[in-house]
User: Which sequence fits this backbone?
């Protein structure tokens, strides 16, 4: 009756009232720590007519003020918004009632005509004194609170619909650039003529339905750089595209697109790691997929089991205009893949320069099959939920709730946990049908106190939570915290069967672990206590890193569905450990980070599929961590995996994925990267065959387990007769930053040990030039033979000295304003890392400063970031420091520079002030270094050394035992190619 009355009032007012979607939470849930919008303290109407903006914002502010993170419950109703609602970090807005609540933007709401203008904005923080009053803050980002960011965790909105009425062409339902354990779910977006349902999404979205609008989702790279997974969602009636995106790591599971011009459009000049599984496309007038950057290994497109009806063009490639068409009006695409492909790791083609291929396997269908059913089981009816507080649980982090919870599990199948810390002292074992439901895995947690007696000593693994073999258990919205001094602890020992579910579960410990009752100031203090003062251990040395069993251990026939899991406890052996099971398992959007040894391990496992696995290695704990290990396993699919090492990393690492004694391993869309100088040298290493894959970005790699095929012997046209790559010296930590003097001697830096070395071409010997604590990173020579050193120390530190003099004196070079220097030699980075796909825009910009050599003949252009010592996440990532090497270039001559992140190499002309112009793409191959020989051939270090002539024709590959990090020609005749390769120095003689 209430909904009918609201609809009638809306019609009388000349608006369009959308029918609320089916409510996922039809009953009221009791949580003493939550805020309820209908509690009486908020002047709320819920009739769709009166303005409820202040009431909704006040409820959110109350949670943030009193508890810093938590839940706002919104009852059924229509809530008219006239301004942006800001959701502060860690706050979840949850609708409940017989029908879903709806947030309504009425016709012609001021401020929503120009876009993007947001109804709901997930923020990164609430600035001191910020007041959401008036409408001005929606007009410009500078007037808003800061955007959600890589440190925004746990924020969410669920079971609330969005309605945008006519006259709001700039309106967007939600902006959500947040990070782990944030989500949108169970929502309908009635967009009318609005701009988009979601602009800039992140992490995971489940059961969303977009009706109308220009775009359903308009998004880009999420703020942490992780994947954006969208599951069980539908798009219909968008006028531009259902999804418009770039670099989103878009992982689409069971999507449906209907009556749109384009389903997914990737922006021009951008790549993405796009994965689509079990999709449905109907009545798509233009190309269903628009793919850009088609010749780049950064473009990774894979899809399986897509059905089409009335879709003339399945995919169009933006640059070439190539189109892929189906065989009939109704058809299935069993496999679609585009990108860098290696059919079998055993094949010798794994070392090719750029193996971009397209696979398109389609077949006609007589009848369109039914949509693929979701593998996320529904929660039991709310009438069956028992509140554990009503059963006597305390949840105060002090009183032992073990026996109360055990009794509750013995007597009831479905238990609801309101916000609280439920302290236990022994394993909580579930029955086969037990369901545990929480709604916030940071404020609702099962935990062990440090030093819990049952979990001490050396012994067998002892789980905090344990499920039975073959169970149909569901655990959702709960944190599991084993703390740091419980060496036998396992967060969850999961033996449940293929129909079980773990969803929205956080394995607490380490990053993002804060007291749910702490203030914002106290939370910041907790963050600062994660490390000791050298980032080599916990601040409490009794809390030992790598001192517990795995956090999530699936074993003994366990399987099921795992969705939106965050497992970053540094105390655990691994974040995800799957062993000894052939039961079907599916993983969606799991983040495993900050472990010392392993992020994810599959040991004696078959029949698992892992989508959107994300790993991150921190400088302190993760220097030797292995993101993924697969051993004694078969029939595994790993799709859309992101593998990242943080910018401050300095420890080299050999490989990201280690495979042994395994067959039928399918890797799709592997994105392995770092803005540090120590990304993984190899993406994959098969220990059994001894074959590695150095290509860090690829769309397709199969590991059959077959012995490697013999490679063909190279008859080189570039190398001198019988010349091969020769190791000159080894035992270094991580060498780069080299330069060649007039005699052809090669100087280089091992920055870890603050040492400058020289390889003498006359006596073929290595010597130390200098090992004083002056933090050398890059070297260059002026024409007089003085060595110029760029230092990591201080702000804009560059010094020079005579490397042949016995005096240790150095001269500091001061930054000078940039001017034209005709006749001088510019020293420029040969590789650059750019995070935002802006290489072509940023590189030609003239640097404002120059460091001029002692003899006045040579200069190094530098940016304000280097001169001022600007930090990026605590590190310096300035071009002249981040590069693997610098090279001299005569103004007016062609210079080559690699876009390392984009894996492209460009040519340019250098001006007399050191700036570059006429930037042109040379090859869709790029990496750590690039140099040229006397004939003008171009040598690119990108895993191996790929050689092209000056016209861009591929000539050959020079294979190096280690990943090359810098290339320079030297020697008495300038024909010796020196190769700095992490731990060793190599050389090869060219013709």
Assistant:
């Amino acid at each position: 009756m209430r909904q009918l009355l609201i609809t009638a009032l809306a019609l009388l007012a000349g608006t369009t009232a959308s029918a609320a979607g089916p409510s996922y939470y039809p009953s009221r849930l009791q949580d003493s720590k939550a805020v309820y919008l209908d509690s009486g303290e908020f002047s709320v109407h819920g009739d769709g007519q009166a303005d409820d903006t202040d009431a909704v914002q006040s409820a959110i502010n109350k949670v943030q003020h009193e508890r810093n993170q938590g839940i706002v419950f919104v009852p059924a109703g229509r809530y008219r918004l006239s301004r942006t609602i800001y959701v502060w970090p860690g706050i979840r807005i949850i609708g409940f009632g017989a029908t879903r609540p709806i947030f309504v933007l009425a016709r012609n709401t001021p401020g929503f005509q120009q876009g993007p203008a947001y109804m709901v904005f997930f923020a990164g923080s609430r600035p001191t004194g910020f007041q959401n009053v008036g409408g001005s803050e929606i007009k410009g980002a500078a007037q808003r609170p800061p955007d959600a960011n890589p440190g925004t965790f746990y924020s969410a909105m669920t079971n609330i619909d969005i309605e945008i009425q006519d006259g709001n062409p700039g309106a967007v339902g939600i902006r959500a650039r947040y990070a782990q354990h944030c989500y949108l779910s169970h929502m309908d977006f009635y967009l009318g003529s609005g701009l988009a349902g979601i602009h800039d999404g992140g992490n995971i979205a489940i059961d969303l339905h977009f009706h109308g609008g220009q775009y359903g989702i308009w998004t880009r790279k999420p703020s942490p750089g992780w994947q954006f997974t969208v599951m069980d969602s539908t798009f219909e009636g968008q006028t531009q595209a259902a999804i418009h995106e770039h670099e989103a790591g878009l992982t689409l599971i069971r999507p449906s697109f209907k009556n749109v011009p384009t389903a997914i459009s990737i922006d021009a000049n951008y790549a993405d790691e796009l994965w689509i599984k079990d999709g449905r496309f109907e009545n798509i007038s233009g190309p269903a997929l628009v793919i850009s950057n088609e010749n780049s290994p950064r473009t990774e497109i894979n899809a399986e089991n897509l059905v089409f009806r009335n879709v003339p063009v399945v995919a169009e490639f933006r640059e070439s205009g190539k189109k892929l068409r189906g065989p009939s009006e109704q058809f299935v695409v069993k496999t679609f893949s585009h990108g860098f492909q290696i059919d079998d790791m055993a094949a010798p083609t794994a070392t090719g320069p750029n193996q971009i291929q397209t696979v398109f396997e389609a077949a006609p269908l007589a009848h369109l099959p039914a949509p693929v059913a979701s593998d996320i089981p529904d929660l039991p009816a709310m009438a069956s939920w028992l509140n554990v507080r009503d059963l006597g649980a305390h949840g105060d982090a002090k009183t032992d709730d073990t026996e109360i919870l055990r009794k509750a599990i013995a007597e009831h199948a479905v238990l609801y946990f309101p916000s609280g810390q439920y302290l236990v002292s022994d394993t909580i074992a579930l029955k086969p049908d037990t369901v545990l439901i929480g709604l916030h895995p940071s404020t609702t947690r099962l935990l062990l106190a440090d030093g819990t007696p049952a979990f001490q000593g050396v012994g067998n693994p002892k789980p905090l939570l344990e499920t039975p073999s073959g169970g149909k258990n569901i655990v959702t919205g709960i944190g599991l915290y084993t703390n740091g001094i419980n060496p036998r602890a396992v967060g969850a020992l999961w033996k449940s069967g293929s129909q079980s579910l773990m969803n929205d579960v956080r394995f607490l410990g380490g990053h993002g672990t804060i007291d749910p009752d702490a203030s914002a100031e106290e939370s910041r203090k907790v963050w600062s206590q994660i490390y000791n003062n050298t980032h080599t251990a916990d601040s409490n040395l009794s809390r030992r890193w790598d001192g517990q069993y795995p956090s999530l251990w699936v074993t003994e026939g366990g399987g099921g569905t795992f969705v939106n899991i965050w497992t970053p406890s540094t105390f655990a052996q691994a974040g995800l450990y799957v062993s000894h099971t052939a039961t079907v398992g599916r993983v969606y959007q799991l983040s495993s980070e900050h472990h010392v040894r392993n992020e994810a391990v599959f040991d004696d496992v078959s029949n698992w599929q892992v989508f959107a696995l994300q790993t991150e290695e921190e400088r302190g704990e993760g220097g030797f961590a292995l993101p993924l290990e697969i051993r004694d396993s078969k029939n595994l699919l790993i799709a859309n995996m992101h593998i990242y090492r943080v910018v401050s990393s300095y420890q080299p690492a050999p490989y990201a994925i280690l495979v042994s004694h395994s067959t039928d391993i399918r890797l799709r869309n592997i994105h392995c990267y770092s803005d540090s100088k120590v990304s993984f040298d190899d993406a994959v290493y098969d220990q059994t065959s001894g074959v590695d894959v150095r290509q860090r970005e690829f769309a397709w790699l199969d590991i059959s387990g077959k012995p490697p095929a013999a490679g063909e012997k190279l008859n080189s046209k570039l190398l001198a007769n019988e010349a091969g790559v020769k190791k000159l010296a080894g035992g270094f930590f991580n060498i780069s930053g080299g330069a060649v003097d007039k005699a052809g001697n090669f100087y280089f830096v091992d920055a870890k040990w603050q040492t400058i070395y020289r390889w003498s071409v006359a006596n073929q010997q290595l010597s130390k030039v200098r090992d004083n604590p002056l933090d050398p990173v890059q070297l260059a020579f002026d024409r007089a033979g003085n060595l110029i050193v760029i230092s990591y120390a201080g702000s804009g530190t560059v010094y020079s000295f005579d490397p042949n003099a016995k005096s240790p004196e150095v001269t500091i070079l001061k930054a000078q304003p940039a001017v034209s220097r005709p006749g001088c030699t510019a020293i420029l980075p040969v590789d650059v890392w750019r995070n935002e796909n802006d290489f072509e825009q940023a590189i030609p910009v003239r640097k404002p400063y120059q460091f001029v050599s002692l003899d006045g003949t040579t200069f190094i252009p530098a940016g304000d970031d280097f001169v001022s010592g600007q930090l990026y996440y605590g590190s310096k990532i300035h071009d002249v420091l981040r590069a693997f090497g610098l090279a001299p270039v005569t103004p007016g001559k062609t210079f080559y520079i690699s876009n390392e992140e984009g894996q492209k190499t460009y040519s340019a002309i250098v001006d007399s002030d050191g700036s570059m112009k006429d930037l042109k793409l040379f090859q869709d191959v790029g990496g750590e270094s690039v140099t040229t020989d006397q004939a003008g051939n171009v040598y690119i270090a990108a895993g191996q050394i790929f050689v092209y002539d000056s016209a861009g024709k591929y000539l050959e590959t020079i294979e190096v035992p280690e990943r090359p990090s810098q290339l320079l020609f030297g020697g008495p005749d300038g024909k010796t190619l020196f190769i700095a390769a992490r731990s060793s120095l190599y050389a090869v003689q060219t013709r």
Residues 1-16, 133-142 have pLDDT under 50 and may be disordered. Residues 386-530+537-703 form a domain with the Pectate Lyase C-like fold (CATH 2.160.20.10).
